[in-house]
Amino acid sequence: MESGDNIKLIVALLPKGHIEAVTESLSDITTGVVNVTGSADSGEKGLFGVSIKEETKMIFCLVKDEDKDQAFERIIENGELEDFPTGLCMSIPIDRIYRSPANKKVTGITDMPPKGE
Fold first, then answer.
1. The pTM is what?
2. pLDDT more than 90, % of the chain
3. Is residue 114 part of a domain?
4. Angstrom distance (rounded) from CA 66 to CA 70
5. d(CA 77, CA 83)
6. Which pLDDT tens digit goes with each residue over 51-64?
7. Strands 56-64 and 88-94
8. Which residue range is the domain that position 48 belongs to?
9. Is residue 36 in a domain?
10. Taking CA 88 as the corner, what is the angle to CA 78 and CA 31, rounded to the nearest 5 degrees?
11. In this structure, is residue 62 part of a structural domain?
């Protein structure tokens, strides 16, 4: 992904046990998927009205805008979200990315300068 690409951050709440299938399905359209492990007490209101419990896992991934719809379809299908009561998938526009030069694990992402630079 290059500076100037219209990039989206996709956040998905998936049922436990579906992370690997979703990650594999996205491998050709994203630079990688971050799996947030462990459980969290998201409080009475939860995250976007969805309580995050042990049976729910969260992933983050970056995709180009042109790949967003395809990513959604793959997440919904491979994560079996239609049958998961607390399933959620959303995209958020990304206008700036900074990757530390010391971080050798993150590849495929070029830093995006602030708009106007």
1. 0.73
2. 35
3. no
4. 8
5. 10
6. 556 678 889 999 99
7. unpaired
8. 7-94
9. yes
10. 60
11. yes
CA angle 67, 40, 87 (to 5 degrees): 40
The two tokens of residue 41 are: 């007490």
How many CA atoms lie less than 13 Å away from 45 in the CB half-sphere? 2
CATH (domain of 11) = 3.30.70.120
Return the structure tokens found at 5: 């690409």
| CA–CA distance, 68 with 7 (Å, rounded to integer) | 9
In the chain, how many domains are there? 1
Instruction: Note whether residue 33 is domain-resident.
Output: yes
SS3 annotation, the chain? CCCCCCEEEEEEEEECCCHHHHHHHHCCCEEEEEEECCCCCCCCCCECCECCCCCEEEEEEEEEHHHHHHHHHHHHHHCCHHHCCCCEEEEEEECCECCCCCCCCCCCCCCECCCCC
Tens digit of each residue's pLDDT (9 = 90 or more) over 18-36: 989 999 999 999 877 888 7
